[in-house]
# Entry
Amino acid sequence: MLKFIRIDMTAKKVTVEETPEKYLALGGRALTSQFILDEVPAECHPLGAKNKLIITPGLLSGTNAPSSGRLSIGGKSPLTGGIKEANAGGITSQKIANLGIKAIVIEGMADSGTYIARVTADNVELIPADDLAGKGTYELTSILLERYNPKAGIICIGPAGEMKMLSAGITNNDMEGNSSRYAGRGGLGAVMGSKGLKAIVVEADKTFDAPVKDKERFKAAAKKFAQILIQHPVSGDGLPKYGTNVLMNIINEAGGLPTRNFSTGRFDAANEVGGEKLAEVATARGGKATHACHPGCVIRCSNVYPMPDGKVCSPIEYETAWGFGPNLDISDLDVVAKLNYICNDVGLDTIEVAGTLGVLMEAGALQFGDGQGAITALEEVAKGTPLGRIIGAGAAVAGKVYGVTRVPTVKGQSIPAYDPRSVRGNGVTYATTTMGADHTAGYAVTANILKVGGFVDPTKDGGQIELSRNLQIATAAVDATGLCLFVAFAVLDNPEGLPTIVEMLNAQYGTELTVDDVTALGQQILKNEREFNAKAGFTKADDRLPEFFYEEELAPHNTKFDLKEKLDEVFNF
Amino acid sequence: MNCLLLEVRLYSGLEKFVAGATYGKPLAVELPDGANVKELLAKLNIPEVEVFSILANGIHRHLEDVLNDGDRVALFPPVGGG
# Structure
């Protein structure tokens, strides 16, 4: 049987049930979104006892399918007020799957105290852990690895989550014990904190032995899929060499790099914080320009960046380098790394913090380009001071507190590293996704800038609605499989990609899915999420970009975002 | 004959084809009037097969496209992330 674990934080009781029939064929985002729609009242307070967190591996996680170790976490988002699925790499997803666990649900809330949960092959227990309250994630992870099992996966929150800050994420560790693999977006760390749960320790000896019905058939399909990934120039060569931050320069050259809080599309010093520079500095300091976030990843887009203070930041992703670099007019990679590290330790989403610091600089509360000022301000978060709490509350709240009108958020969540005026397909995604502004929800940068999966002119409206729609459907389905979204580069370009994913699923579960079923699954996920958001009070007005994107031209292409009513066609399916 | 003066940036490994070049540092390249991207690559000794994205002043261009005086040209191998 596949176990469905419920941890009731009100009663301090653990229940291990058999997975309900309805959820057996679901995993990852398909399961989190269906479950939240089924069990969480849409109008509930996200930090109250009625909200639930669900943690689940993707369908292929825990097998030897390449790059399949994504962990999905779902709940009602305190940042957006809507449904949320945030997913992460790291080593825990495979462990949960290898323990035969379909999902871990956290429900209710403790009236006081700090707890951790320990999950092993034959037991799940809730343990009082007041001694761990207030710990940063790096120290916490290190204590728990030493206390229980040096090979454990540790899902945890930092002080930001304990203080119920709206931008708090939930992290887990990589193979070296870095607690930096975040289900970062949407404030799910605050939900975990509201329940009184500081960490979940997951102990499993196995990594690739989740049950597979037809092992030979699966092995052949997994091998073929690995070849498809390795043969594609982006997943096989570009990403391993320079990591995701290889994007910095091409987005800058294309004029879509949001600079100084989305004031212009080019940053003179982009090259100083780009992937080439990162690889050069990381290697020179004894770090790594390529690194896998979980066992069995063939893409290895992560990195290990040694900082001047002797600690390492692993990884520095493109969105973070953009957010703490060009977005703040900062061109020092060490400052970027330090801000990234503090976010990882205190437990905050780097993209949301970047958006917030940009708004605070817009307000004059901090100065653009002042790296040390940004570091000092971010250090206030762990202390829980008023400024620290404003930073932890996200860009939309900071904008309101300081009376700023240029606040780059949708549904209360910060817009990431591609300006919607000159990467318009992503603008459509930011506006319409159920998640609040989220670049991964329908990553139109592929066809707009990278010329993967066709080409759609990034500064024109034509084709963007359809592009975003198709990508949002495909992404929802990929997010159900546990495959890293970066398989999409190869899958979009190779006609054998999607059928091979379907073949792996069929071999694992003994099903007879077709490619059309995968599309239908993606559509169903989006419909469930839209239904939840509608019940939570979202309307078409929430599917729009902030006013300034429609009114201010963005250099160098001097374009504005134009799409409004047309955006409502994205979900015509 | 008139000449084009281009501001060329090479990224993500393409700089290795040009002696003394550094990623992202602008190179001044002179070409005859009416030259296209192919001719630029030939002059720099960068194999066409290595070049995936060509941006001139932030706009995607093709190998056959003619360049203009003062263009900011950026050349990339296949890159991606997100």
Q: What stands out?
A: The mean pLDDT of chain B is 96.
